[in-house]
Design goal:
alpha/beta, Rossmann fold, 2 domains, 7-stranded mixed beta sheet, 11 helices, 11 strands, 38% helix, globular
C-alpha cells in the first residue's frame, strides 16, 4: 500500500487514475523521482513525511517531522469528547475546549468540525508545531475558529475557564523504547512520543493543571496506553466518573475524568 501511495504521490494522481491507466509508462524523470522516494521509505522515513500529508477524522492534514503523525487511534479521543458533550449539561455558552499539545492541530480541527459553535483553543510548546497547526487550520478555513498559543501544557491558562481539556500527550516511557517502531523512534519528534522514564511524567503535570483550569463539572480527556492505565487512575484521585475507553483491539486508549460537581 505504501508503494502505491508513493506512486500516486510521484505521478500527482489519485487511485482511480492509477487503476484506470495500468498501461501508462513512467517517464525517465518519474522513474528517477519514484526511485528516490522509495529509497527514502526504505531507510525508514514515514510515508506521511514523504508526501507531507495524513488524513484524520476525514480532514487532510499537512504533516512534517515537526509534528507527530496523526493516527486512527486518536480518533477515539474525538469520539469520547463528543460522547461526554452529548450526556453532560454544561451551562457555559459557548462551550470552551482546549487541545493541549496540539501538534498538527488534528484534534482541534476535528473538534471544530464537530462542534462549530464551540470556542476552541490549542497550545503547544513547539513553535514549529504551531506553525503546522496554523497552516492546517488555514487550509480548511478554520483559522478564525481556533485560538493557537505557544505554551508548556496549560501554563498561563486562567483557572475555572474551560469545559473540556483534551490532549494526546507524550505517554511512552523511555524504558519501553525498544518496543516502539524504529521509524517512530528515528523520525518522529521525540518530545511528542516519550514522556520520561515511566511514561506518566507529562500526564502527572497536566492533571493538576487541568483540574485548576476546568470549570466544575468539566472534563479532562486524554489519550493513553495500556501500560500506564493504573498509574493514570492513581493520578486522577479526587476526580469523578473516570472511564477508560478501549480501541478496536481492546487496548486502553483514552481516559476521561470529570472535575467533581
Amino acid at each position: 500500500m505504501n508503494a502505491e501511495l508513493l506512486l500516486m504521490f510521484t505521478l500527482e494522481c489519485d487511485r482511480a487514475y492509477l487503476y484506470a491507466h495500468p498501461e501508462r509508462d513512467l517517464t525517465s524523470d518519474e522513474i528517477t523521482r519514484y526511485a528516490d522516494i522509495l529509497s527514502e521509505r526504505a531507510r525508514g522515513v514515514p510515508a506521511q513525511y514523504i508526501t507531507g500529508h495524513q488524513e484524520f477524522w476525514g480532514i487532510d492534514l499537512i504533516v512534517t517531522p515537526a509534528v507527530l503523525i496523526p493516527r486512527p487511534e486518536t480518533e477515539h479521543v474525538i469520539e469520547t469528547v463528543l460522547a461526554c458533550v452529548g450526556r453532560t449539561l454544561l451551562s457555559a455558552t459557548p462551550l470552551r475546549l482546549i487541545d493541549v499539545g496540539t501538534g498538527s492541530g488534528c484534534i482541534a480541527l476535528a473538534l471544530t468540525k464537530e462542534l462549530p459553535q464551540a470556542e476552541i483553543h490549542a497550545t503547544d510548546v513547539s513553535s514549529a508545531a504551531l506553525e503546522i497547526a496554523r497552516a492546517n487550520a488555514a487550509r480548511h478555513q478554520l483559522q478564525s475558529h481556533i485560538h493557537f498559543r505557544e505554551a508548556d501544557l496549560l501554563t498561563g491558562v486562567d483557572n475555572d475557564s474551560f469545559d473540556f481539556i483534551v490532549s494526546n500527550p507524550p505517554y511512552v516511557g523511555e524504558s519501553e523504547e525498544d518496543q516502539v517502531q524504529l521509524e517512530v523512534r528515528k523520525f518522529e519528534p521525540r518530545n511528542a512520543v516519550f514522556a520520561g522514564p515511566t511514561g506518566v511524567e507529562v500526564i502527572a503535570r497536566l492533571i493538576p493543571q487541568a483540574h485548576a483550569a476546568l470549570r466544575v463539572g468539566g472534563w479532562l480527556v486524554m489519550e493513553i496506553s495500556g501500560t500506564i492505565v493504573e498509574a493514570t487512575k492513581q493520578l486522577l484521585t479526587g476526580w469523578e466518573e473516570i472511564q477508560i475507553v478501549t480501541d478496536l483491539q481492546g487496548i486502553p486508549r483514552v481516559v476521561a475524568a470529570r472535575k467533581k460537581t
